[in-house]
Fold this sequence. Notes:
- By secondary structure, this protein is α+β, with helices and mostly antiparallel strands.
- The chain has helices at about 15-30, 70-80, 125-130, 145-150; strands at about 5-10, 35-40, 40-45, 55-65, 95-100, 105-110, 115, 155-160.
- It is globular, with a radius of gyration of 15 Å.
Amino acid sequence: MTTDTFIGLGSNLKDPAAQLARAVSGLAALPDTVLIAQSAFYASRPVGPQDQPDFVNGAVWLRTSLPAHQLLDQLQAIEQAHGRERLRHWGPRTLDLDILLYGDQILDDERLTIPHRELRTRDFALQPLLDLKADLTLPDGTPIAELRSQCPDNGLRKLPPADYP
Ligand code: ROI
């Protein structure tokens, strides 16, 4: 059995677009997993402390037979392999990989909250999801497009493909 899952990517340190491009390669190479599509990359103002660089954000659509917690283990291994630095809470980071959606599952334990806790209010996560699948919904049926039209504007700017490594 496979599950369609959507992963959010973010970075604001050490050539963020290159961090994301390398992460997409890592995700495409995961065991028991196929990369279905990747979104455009976006520049976005930081949510949280403003004394940090702008972020680059994107998302990928994966089809996997890994259970959610094993997928999380794999994402954390990619973050570590890419020299993840996380200098402070809500501060700058080299690479953040978040499971935004995992099929229509709802999960909440000490390691994982799916759908991602802040998904509903973050344009930098919602817009890449819409790029991937315009009719995507939360497990409760709420359209991602509806959340996107209601969420705060965070100055999202699509990066031209020439800016990707
Ligand atoms: N802000 C933006 N714009 N993008 C992110 O990926 C992001 N990630 C975070 C915090 C620091 C909360 N702010 C962010 O973890």
